[in-house]
Amino acid sequence: xxxxxxxxxxxxxxxxxGYPISAHEGESNVFFRVFSVADxxxxxxxxxxxxxxxxxxxxxxxxxYANPANFANQDVLRVFYxxxxxxxxxxxxxxxxxxxxxxxxxxxxxxxxxxxxIAFEAEGNRGRGVSLDQVEVFVSMDGELPNPLNLxxxxxxxxxxxxxxxxxxxxxxxxxxxxxxxVYRNNTLVFAGDDPSQTTFT
Length: 202
Prior knowledge:
Elements: E1 2-4, E2 10-12, E3 29-32, E4 42-47, E5 58-67, E6 76-82, E7 90-95, E8 99-108, E9 117-124, E10 130-140, E11 149-156, E12 160-166, E13 182-185, E14 188-192, E15 200-201
Antiparallel strand pairs: 1-4, 2-3, 3-10, 4-9, 5-8, 5-10, 6-7, 6-9, 11-12, 12-15, 13-14
């Protein structure tokens, strides 16, 4: 999304000019850079898809960036979010320091939001460019996982114990962040389930 001027984010290795020399992870990353006085001050947002973070109680945005100066010329990276696709952008954090090497930044995200978008806005001031790589969102949930309801034990096939239970989770189990049920014997994990709808174990 063009904010000022019409300069695009590009794909390359580092900033394609050795500052940094390569991507932080993998073979390529995105970067934004202007060269001419006429384009000085250009700003363009790189916008994420819509993220549904409503099932989670905590979320963090993590990314790696570099923003090296070119003598006195310094580019700027700003990180925004909006709660609706047509909503107003809100500034989360700004990065305007001379940063030659890849650096990790972690930002707490406001929750809960069902239709969040994140934008990385670069402002080109004829520095050596803003480089961006390995963008991730980490989520977590407060509180304890629910215990099974109506847990019963039955002997099947002659001598095999079979556990059966019922569940009572709000909404869709997968959408609420539950991956499955774990079974313990004397505080030792004997089975890690990956199906939230599972209600038996033998």
